[in-house]
Design goal:
By secondary structure, the chain is an alpha/beta fold. Among the domains are: 202 residues, Rossmann fold (3-Layer(aba) Sandwich); 97 residues, GMP Synthetase, Chain A, domain 3 (2-Layer Sandwich), CATH 3.30.300.30. 29% of the residues lie in helices and 25% in strands. The strands form 4 sheets. It has a 13-stranded mixed beta sheet with strand order 2-1-11-10-12-13-14-15-16-20-19-18-17, sandwiched between helices. The protein is globular and about 70 Å long. Bound molecules: adenosine monophosphate. Adenosine monophosphate (AMP) binds next to strand 14, strand 19 and strand 20.
Length: 547
């Protein structure tokens, strides 16, 4: 027997329509390249979102088209989130900090029809012009007064387009399983892969995320997402927060500038913020040096990389701000776990409580997790046994865009047992708190950004005096991890560190240039002839980058 409940579809336009009715006067504050302090209300935002939906239609975009964005966290990007997905198109957020070739690959692979580009990203797009033959129009996210001179064709001004459209639009109804947004993730091998979210997965993720024992969200709060809107939809906050009518504060291109962050927090009474540990390190150092305070900031959410204990301690001791660590991946929308104390262990305090906060948190209802050994046998939740972390659930990726969706097939993230192997190694304790102990992947995470070790190695081995090279991530106090390059020079050559470093600087983007190079006669290999990164990491376990 079937239940007799309405089968209303969970659509992103539903969030927008609900918020417009219920929270019309809630505010959205942004820093943008063309305005250091922009403020308007939800009502203004959604009126413009309808105009933007009309703009998309005028540009010839239709249901299912991919619309690329290369932009920071601001109100225009938020309008795009809702106008694109609400119209049944796919909002494809792209990280402007990737290699230009990767950006071109991603845009072409996704077949983006229209690109919405921040003013600051225009020089990059001009360089890529000849590689973007499928893109039909480029919209610069600014007003007429700030439109740049450009050699590109089919370029439009965002504000001019909006002004030419009516503010009425009828949001279409369609299946909740329709794709709503996409985000490419760079793994260890091959090209970046597209994770394709659906309306259903996004709404379920938002419901879960808003729970008080998860990221928590309410109309009485003021949230400043510092995690970029091109990285897993800013951890879903632009959906969750709008669903709950939260005031939003967007730092735009200034997300690594602690002066701007502090001004926004204090002027706008920000109660909650979210970002990677590097951001918190930068903010804490600034506060310590300046003697400034952040009295409104109740909690910060830290994810993307393990949060150093000192950050938890400094926030709580010196600024009375709770640190909530969360774990997730592009493939998990991203929420998998979040820290919150349980009623049954609320008496925990002191070091024991800090120990728990340094773990990655408890599973969120909707994401099942387990740890397994190398034979795929489940391991106990005892806080000791560690193994590959596997997850499954309605907001976990079942296949990458344009690749096989058959569990176990090559390129499919889901294994034959129907679970996705996260590539992380973890323990889970008897209370359900998960802790990442290692990463099976070799990519290096610098300030929350992926740096491919393979790219660094590939660049290094093109030097005529390099025989073999291996890049590993090592702890860095500011960036969490930075690349250390281990090199075997060719025999009878006189390769110096400076020579190789200069060579790499010319070949690699700044973020990928290793912080140090170590020369060795040999690099350890596994039985199958691959570089033994685990062995190398062990060898450099106590290595520290010099100042
Ligand atoms: P991404 O897909 O770029 O968001 O990266 C996901 C990966 O970041 C995970 O598989 C973990 O390796 C790492 N990660 C995310 N959150 C945390 C965390 N709180 N602690 C440790 N590692 C994390």
């Amino acid at each position: 027997m079937q239940g007799l409940m309405m089968n209303s579809q969970l659509l992103i336009s539903g969030i927008l329509q609900f918020a417009e009715r219920n929270y019309p006067n809630q505010e959205i504050v942004s820093v943008t390249a063309d305005n250091p302090y922009h403020r308007y209300t939800y009502k203004d935002c959604f009126k413009r979102t309808r105009q933007l939906a009309n703009v998309l239609a005028t540009l010839g975009a239709t249901f299912g088209d991919r619309i690329g964005t290369l932009a920071w966290n601001d109100y225009r990007h938020l309008e795009l989130y809702y106008a694109v997905s609400g119209s049944g198109m796919i909002c494809h957020t792209i990280n402007p900090k990737l290699y230009p070739e990767q950006i071109a690959y991603i845009i072409n692979h996704a077949h983006d029809k229209v690109l919405f580009v921040d003013l600051l990203v225009m020089p990059l797009i001009e360089k890529l012009q000849e590689h973007l033959s499928q893109v039909e129009s480029i919209v610069v996210m600014t007003d007429q007064a700030h439109m740049p001179q450009t050699s590109l064709t089919n370029v439009f001004c965002y504000e001019t387009l909006l002004a030419g459209e009516p503010d009425t639009f009828s949001w279409p109804d369609f299946s909740e399983n329709t794709a709503s947004s996409m985000c490419y993730t760079s793994g260890t091998t091959g090209h970046p892969k597209g994770v394709l979210y659906s309306h259903r997965s996004t709404l379920l993720h938002s419901f879960a995320s808003a729970l008080p024992d998860c990221l928590g969200s309410s109309s009485t709060e003021v949230c400043m997402p510092i995690v970029p809107m091109f990285h897993v939809n800013a951890w879903g906050l632009p959906y969750t927060n709008v669903m709950t009518g939260t005031k939003l504060v967007f730092p735009g291109p200034k997300m690594i500038d602690p002066t701007v962050l502090h001004t926004l927090i204090t002027k706008e009474n920000v109660t909650c913020s979210a970002g990677v540990p590097t951001i918190w390190m930068v903010l804490l150092d600034y506060l310590d040096k300046s003697g400034l305070k952040v009295p409104s900031l109740n909690r910060v959410i830290s994810g993307g990389a393990a949060c150093p204990r000192s950050i938890v301690e400094r926030f709580e001791r010196d600024y009375d701000t709770a640190l909530v660590q969360a774990w997730g991946m592009t493939e998990t929308s991203p929420l998998g776990t979040a820290f919150h104390i349980k009623g049954t262990n609320r008496d925990l305090e002191g070091e024991a409580l800090t120990d728990l906060k340094c773990k990655q948190g408890r599973g969120v209802f909707g994401v099942e997790m387990k740890i397994v050994d190398e034979n795929n046998q489940e391991l106990p939740w005892d806080g000791e046994a560690f193994g590959a972390l596997k997850v499954r659930g309605p907001w976990v990726c079942s296949g990458y865009y344009g690749m096989s969706h058959t569990p176990g097939a090559e390129g499919c993230p889901v294994e034959e047992d129907g679970w996705m192997n996260t590539g992380d190694v973890a323990t889970i304790d008897a209370e359900g708190y998960m802790q990442i102990t290692d990463r099976t992947k070799d990519v290096i995470k610098s300030g929350g950004e992926w740096v491919s070790s393979i790219d660094i190695e590939n660049a290094a081995v093109t030097h005529p005096k390099v025989a073999e090279a291996a890049a590993i991530g090592r702890y860095h106090p500011k960036w969490t991890e930075r690349p250390l390059l281990v090199v075997v020079p060719r025999p009878d050559t006189d390769l110096s560190k400076d020579e190789l470093m200069d060579y790499l600087k010319a070949k690699l983007p700044k973020v990928s240039v290793p912080d140090d190079i170590q020369f060795q006669e040999q690099i350890p290999h596994t039985a199958t002839g691959k570089i033994n990164k685990l062995g190398l990491r062990k060898q450099y376990e106590n290595y520290q980058f010099s100042e």
